[in-house]
Amino acid sequence: MQLFATSRGIARACLESEAQLEILDSASSDLAEHFGAGAFEPLRSRPPEGRVAIEDVTFLPPIAQPGRFVIAGLNYRAHCEEVGRPVPERLLFGFTNGAAALGARAPIRIPAAAPEEVDYEGEVAVVIGRTVEGVAAADAWSVVAGLTPINDVSARDVQRGGTLEALARAKGFPTFKPFGPCVATLDEFADPLDIGIRTWVNGELRQSGRTSDMAFPIPQILEAVTARVRLEPGDVVCTGTPGGVAHGGAHPYLVAGDRVEIELEGLPRLSNAVGAGE
After folding, report:
1. Both ends of the chain: CA-CA distance in Å?
2. Which of 153, 96, 149, 151 is nearest to 119 (CA)?
3. Torsion, CA 91, CA 127, CA 141, CA 75, rounded to 10
4. In this predicted model, what pLDDT tens digit does every residue of 10-60 receive, in sequence order?
């Protein structure tokens, strides 16, 4: 099941037409309002109020303002290689604020305070479906409401501060966490441990990887994170990026006028233009 937060309400992908969405709740614009037993499962059988053309809606962040974004770092072997870093022996992660959330088709703003090294990072994001603390990897999928494409936009010059505070600031500027346009439940993936992920900038393929290249797969990420902190419904876990980012040296950083597109195989692309900041 693919679920969308839109200007016309909460919607579900229409099985009969890829060009349409089924409106499930025209009074709601935040999937966080629809968590129930089994996360989003109550929405699977909900009768639609009507249909709308997908081009006639404005996409909103699927979760209007996550409590936090968890940021896993150096979690793809190819990315470690391109930046000359060893694969970590344990998961490296930090946090940034939920106010950075942005929907598909909305513009990423380059901050005036850090305009020179704004980087894209196509990733798989995990939307947490229930309060969880200390989950074992073997049980971790049970706390996942769904997966979604995310662009873990980063100001690399700020990030070079090397502290968790620098990481949070570098990745937490307004509009720096576009995600969506949909959250997909796990049955949308043949193998959630082996999902293809690709990123284009201005139509040029920059990143192409699979989640099977992760040093720490999603269940291990959730085990490591929840051993230290409690996660709440609607929190979003960014699981790391494949090789091909600008920081690797082979591609330029983002500038106003660029467009970034991120695709998890089988899902609609996350597309955002890049604009100048205030």
Report:
1. 38
2. 153
3. -20
4. 999 998 898 999 999 999 999 999 987 677 888 999 999 999 999 999 999
Written as six digits, the tokens of 6 are: 């839109």
Q: Is 53 exposed, middle or buried (0-12, 13-18, 19+ CB in 10 A)?
A: exposed
- Tell me, what amino acid is at 133? E
CATH H-level, domain 61-276: superfamily: Fumarylacetoacetase-like, C-terminal domain (3.90.850.10)
Residue 169: DSSP 8-state: H
Query: What is the SS3 assignment for 40?
Result: coil
For residue 86, which phi and psi values (nearest 5 degrees)?
A: -70, 155
Amino acid at 26: S
Task: List pLDDT tens digits, range 95-127.
Answer: 999 999 999 999 999 999 999 999 999 999 999
- CA-angle at 61, arms to 175 and 29, nearest 5°: 140
* Amino acid in position 11: A
Count CB atoms within 10 A of the CB of residue 175. 22
Taking the C-alpha atoms of residue 52 and residue 207, their distance in angstroms, rounded to an integer, is: 32
Kindly list the distances between the CA atom of residue 94 and the CA atoms of 109, 191, 195, 239, in Å, as whole numbers in the listed order.
22, 27, 23, 11
Report the C-alpha gap between 125 and 109 in whole angstroms.
21
Which runs of E-coded beta strand occur in the chain?
2-6, 9-13, 20-25, 50-53, 68-73, 92-97, 101-102, 108-110, 118-119, 122-128, 144-151, 154-155, 177-178, 182-184, 196-201, 204-210, 236-238, 259-264, 270-276
**Cα 220 from Cα 11, distance rounded (Å):** 31
Is the pLDDT at 278 greater than 80? The verdict is: no
* Residue 124 vs residues 9, 46, 116, 274: alpha-carbon distances, Å: 24, 27, 26, 20
Tell me the pTM.
0.96
